[in-house]
Amino acid sequence: MAVALAGAGADVAIVDVLPARETVAAVEALGRKSHTIMSDLATLDPSSASALIDEAGEAVGLISTLVNNAGIIRRAAAVDHGWDDWQETIAIDLSAAFLLCQAFARRRLDAGLRGKIVNVASMLSFQGGSRVPAYAAAKSGIAGLTRALANEWAGQGINVNAIAPGYMATELTSLLRGDPERAEAMLSRIPAGRWGEPDDLHGAVVFLCSRAADYVHGTILAVDGGWLSW
Predict the structure, then answer these.
(1) Contact 150, 159 (CB under 8 A)
(2) I need a labelling partner for 30 at 20 to 30 A (CA). Which of 9, 190, 220, 230 fits?
(3) CA neighbor of 119 nearest in space, from 177, 159, 86, 153
């Protein structure tokens, strides 16, 4: 998504616990500026969220768009799900997104400027899943948060929407795809007949961050190969 936005003309600040060198190289190969902020979003608080937004603005220019994509997943039966795993998942997948939305919106609203926020939801924003109670709770929360913030900020020029990726061929689903029985069952339910690829999110994020989506507020856009329509 960072590369897609760079391809559409954006300079990009990337927040991660790792250097994200491949993404930085891809962004800069498109002739855009990039800046990496090393931060563990599990420990984010209002003060550090505010500082993060300020650093991004100082590095690449006034921040007009926020994409909340950070996420982890912890798999265990609900009766065995560790409390530390629950807290870390909620902190990264939900609380950090709220804090960054808040810090970003404050600056845009105080300056009387429009802005775009895209949160990353999930198929589990619509479904309960299995053996991932914290992730399901966080991603359901992202859907609710997206609608709540859209209700508040739509009339003030800030669009808040979310993308709900389907089952993507990324590290997050590696265990799932490595189980032949479960992988076959999953693929049989995807009308498109394949796992999603990160590139499949390009169009959705560019659209929601563009003027073409100025009248789109509070939507959860599924990019799922037809999974939810099955």
Answers:
(1) yes
(2) 220
(3) 159
For the four alpha carbons of 43, 45, 51 and 52, in that order, the dihedral sign comes to positive
Helices 46-60 and 96-110 pack at an angle, to 10 degrees, of: 60
Residue 162, C-beta contacts closer than 8 angstroms, at least 6 positions apart: 118, 119, 120, 121, 125, 142, 143, 146, 219, 220, 221
Tokens of 77: 């039966």
Give the predicted TM-score (pTM) of the model: 0.96
Mean pLDDT of 145-164: 98
User: What's the rounded Cα separation, in Å, for the pair 138 and 42?
Assistant: 13
Provide long-range contacts, Cβ within 8 A and 24+ apart, for 79-86. Answer: 81/133, 81/134, 85/134, 86/133, 86/134
Among 30-34, 123-127, 171-175, 213-217, which is the least confidently predicted range? 171-175
Which domains are present in the chain? Answer: 64-229 (3.40.50.720)
Q: Return the structure tokens found at 19.
A: 């250097």
* Spatial distance between the Cα atoms of 37 and 58, rounded to a whole number of angstroms: 12
What is the reported pLDDT for 145? 98
